[in-house]
Amino acid sequence: MGKKFKEYRMFILCLIIFMAFLGIGIFSFLNHKQIQMIGAMMLALIALFLLLLRYKMVLYGDMMMIYEWKVAAMLPTLIEYKDIQSIEKKSKHHLVITHQRVSHVYVFDSDLFLSTYHSLKKNK
C-alpha cells in the first residue's frame, strides 16, 4: 500500500460543514426541536466521516492518485510517474503537477509529499 496524504481543500470544506451542522444541532437542542436536532447530528456525523476517512491522495510505487475538480465534483485521478513532466511547489500546501494536463494539488505538507514522491520514484 502507498503513502497517504489528506486533501487540504476538502478537509477544510468538510470541517466547515461539520461545524455548521453541529451548530445547527446544538441550536435545535436549545430550542427543543428534537427532530431537527437528530437530523442535524446525523448530517454532522456524515460530515465527520468524510472529514476523517475520505479524500486521501495516495502515492503508490508506480503511480499516484490525486483528487481533481471535474465538472461539479471532486474525483480521483490516477497519474503514472512516467507521465509526470514536473512537480512545482507553489506554497506550503500547493503543488502543481504537469503531466498530460496541469493539476493543482493541495496537501497539508508539500515537502513531505515531494520527498515521498522522489523516494518512491527512485526506488522504482
Q: Any idea what the radius of gyration is?
A: 18 Å
- The SS-based structural class is alpha+beta
- Low-pLDDT runs of 5+ residues are none
What's the shape? elongated
The name CATH uses for the topology of the largest domain is PH-domain like
Going across the major beta sheet, what is the strand order? 1-2-3-4
This entry's quaternary arrangement is single chain
Average pLDDT over all residues: 91
CATH architecture name of the largest domain: Roll
What is the helix/strand order? EHHEEEEEEH
| Portion in beta strands | 25-35%
Structure annotation, total helices = 3
Helix-residue proportion: 40-55%
- The first-level CATH class name of the largest domain: Mainly Beta
Number of domains: 2
Q: Number of DSSP strands? A: 7
Distance from first to last alpha carbon: 14 Å
Largest sheet: 4 strands, antiparallel
Descriptive notes:
There is one protein chain. The protein has 124 residues and is of the alpha+beta class. It has two domains: 6-53; 56-123, Roll (PH-domain like), CATH 2.30.29. It is 46% helix and 31% strand. It is built from three helices and seven strands, in the order βααββββββα. It has helices at 8-30, 34-53, 110-123, and strands spanning 3-6, 56-59, 63-70, 73-80, 86-89, 94-98, 102-106. It has a four-stranded antiparallel sheet. A hairpin with a 3-residue loop joins strand 2 and strand 3 (63-70). Helix 1 packs antiparallel against helix 2. The chain is elongated, with a radius of gyration of 18 Å. It starts with a strand and ends with a helix. The model has no long low-confidence stretch (mean pLDDT 91).
